[in-house]
Amino acid sequence: MDQQVAWRSMRRRVWIAAVMGVAFVAASCSRHETIPTPGTSPIAVGDRAPVFALKSANGGTVSLSDFTGKPVLLYFSMGPG
Question: Over the stretch 2-56, which tens digit does the pLDDT of each residue have?
């Protein structure tokens, strides 16, 4: 009897894992295109970056034009880090 309970529990866990896996794959395969705002166009690989300025981590303002002629790596984060 204990073996049957263990087997049913395992089957239920496998079923839940399979459903979650299919849901994850379906969500990652969905296609969501963003629509550019009027007056702007998407930036393509190799295009120059638009001029902008942002607040730095230490509270100052950093402009992309401050680095003219130098290689720049832009890293945007949605939170700390």
Answer: 778 788 888 888 888 888 888 877 777 666 555 556 666 777 888 877 888 888 8
Name the token pair of 30: 């969905």
Residue 64 inside a domain? The answer is yes
Question: What's the pTM value of the predicted model, to 2 decimals?
Answer: 0.36
Q: What angle do CA 23, 26, 31 make, to 5 degrees?
A: 145
- Whether 62 is in a domain gets the answer yes
How many domains does the chain divide into?
Answer: 1
**Both structure tokens of 2:** 């204990």
Q: Return the amino acid letter for 56.
A: S
Rounded distance, CA 4 to CA 51, Å? 67
